[in-house]
Amino acid sequence: MRTLSEFSMAPIFKINLLALSLAALTSCGGNDQDRGSVSVNNTAATPSAIKGLAIDGHLARAKVYIDSDSNGVRDAWEPFAFTDNEGYFSYNPNNQKNYCASDSTAEESQYCLKPARQYDNATLRITGGYDTLTGEPFSGQLSLRLKEVNNNQVISPLSSLTSGLNDSQNAALLTKLGLNSSDLNTDYTAPGTDINGELLNTAIKLHKVASLLGKKISSVYTALGDENGMPVDATSHAYAELAKALSNYNGSVDEALTDAALLKTVAKNSEQAVQKRYQDKELALPAQSDDDAKFDVIVERLQQLTPLINQLLPPIKNTRAEDARAGARAIEVLGIKASAEREKDAATDRAFTFFRNYVSSNQELLAGLGSEQADISQLTEHSFSDEDLKNPQGIKHLGQVDNSAVPFNAVGGKQLHVADMDLGQKPNNLKDIEFELYFAGNNEASAGSFTACAKYIKKAKADGSLGKGNSRGELIKGFWSQMERRNSTNNYSLLLTFEFLGAKYQAIMKSVGSRTIDGTVYQALRFDNNDDYRIWYSAKGLEQQSTPPTSSSECQSRLPSRVGI
Fold first, then answer.
1. What is the β-pairing status of strands 52-54 and 153-155?
2. Average pLDDT of the residues in 468-491
3. How confident is the model at residue 300 (pLDDT cuts 50, 70, 90)?
4. Which pLDDT value is given to residue 162?
5. If you average pLDDT over every residue of the chain, what do you get?
6. For 51, which DSSP code?
7. Which of 20, 144, 249, 276 has the smallest CB count inside 10 Å?
8. Do the Cβ atoms of 412 and 439 come closer than 8 Å?
9. DSSP assignment, residue 215?
10. Which of 498, 398, 495, 409 is CA-nearest to residue 452?
11. pLDDT reported for residue 231
């Protein structure tokens, strides 16, 4: 059992989940690419809706936007939408739902991408959201060069690699990858008994290189995602440079992806593209920008990762869906650990060794990771001790939801009070974060609307003055839905969409088990956003709903101060 102080050392959010919108009250909040309304225009004079699917695995609740000038930034005037729970936008062929229909509800309309005019040379981009294959937040950015508006678009790592190429370059690179043009429009993770493991293997290898290098660059060049007019991260630059490097490489793709010199070239060229962005914005370069060794550790991890992807997720065309989920989730654990390293970490070394040496002898762990109850939260934090290396069966339970986790099976008509148990310190660092969510719908509902009271106080003073971006209580409205888990009676994840001050945000809430703090048993709830997470606590869990609040002043009375200010 971890102590409360250990929980308080969890990574700090770039954006504080449900509270991120509250920070916009007195600070700049999100940049312009987060602003504006979802694109919905149903007049006959406008172009048809752009329909498509976002996949790494299927990306639920990701933001999809039209980058009309292909500058890698969602400008305030550029239309956007979100993907639905299955990764589709504008139209879902599985339920034949047209999200752009004139009679669409407000919840359905957020999935409609309908441009106000025709675009001749634009790029579709995907950011954020949650990978239904791994159950984790999606990291990085995907893109597709937009050619024909009316066609269904498949945005994937394969389209991202080729989106910046002309037709002849595209054809040559696809040949090197062993692919053809039809593969770019293939849903290689389509739900069913089997999936296309060959395409999934290739896509994951490409995206891990681009996203992990992009994340490393973004950790140094912190204006990315935080400065108006800057891309959310460096992944799009990494994809462009990787496409060039692969096109000019004489060996196989796997040889290229394990070639330290090639990987460093991709990293440095991507960094130079980001530096140009800084210069165009007249921003000072960070101190680490002249450190040539900063890519050494991540390059070494990428060299180790490609052969492990082949081992954990073999390139077999007809791959069982359970095996694909298991492999993808194990790879995600390694990617998360690698991306968190600043210097070489022994625990990450052991994690790579564990999966490299014991994948064949630890089928129970992989079977757990492939099940509908899989959850990698505990594995991403695990130290993979020497004892684990000797006895891999000892950690098989860490790949699944804790037995004490309470599923979100009957959310409609319930309310949930969640709190950060860390109240900070007097006199000038008080903290008081609480939320109360009221879910609309009946017991059988799998989706609906919600109302929330949100109190977000951080770095407040004992004299009652609040820190920047704080609020004693705000009314927030949004939509909830269960994260799809096929063939399962229990659901441990909720997707949340909410709006505040004209901006829309996504988060995922997971039930991760019980925790005892100062003798009291709480339900632990993990909130994920932008690759970061917090674990907050509920004393009562889901309970019968009282009358939902209707104003921010009412929220303030429902969430009184716990720190005396």
1. parallel
2. 79
3. very high
4. 92
5. 84
6. -
7. 276
8. yes
9. H
10. 498
11. 86
Of 206, 177, 202, 176, nearest to 189 (Cα)? 202
Q: Which residues of 269-284 are buried (b: 16+ CB within 10 A; e: fewer)?
A: bbbebbbebbeeeeee
Q: What is the pTM of this model?
A: 0.83
Q: Is 235 helix (H, G, I), strand (E, B) or coil?
A: helix
Q: What is the torsion angle, in degrees rounded to the nearest 10, for the CA atoms of residue 236, residue 110, residue 496 and residue 76? A: 50
**Tens-place pLDDT, residues 144-200:** 988 755 567 899 999 999 998 888 898 999 999 999 888 998 999 887 767 899 999
512 touches 402 (CB < 8 A)? yes
Position 215: which residue type? K
Q: Which two tokens stand for residue 85?
A: 């729970």
Residue with tokens 């450190």: 291
Q: Which residues pair with 484 in a beta bridge?
A: none
Distance in angstroms (rounded) separating the CA atoms of residues 41 and 140: 29
Taking the CA atoms of 71, 72, 73 and 74 in sequence, report the sign of the dihedral they define. positive
Buried/exposed code over 504-520 (b: 16+ C-beta within 10 A; e: otherwise): bbbbbbbbbbbbeeeee
* Torsion region of 540: left, alpha or beta (phi above 0 gives left; psi -120 to 50 gives alpha): alpha
Bond prior to 427 in cis (omega within 30° of 0) = yes
Strands 88-89 and 52-54: antiparallel
pLDDT tens digits, residue range 279-292?
999 999 988 777 77
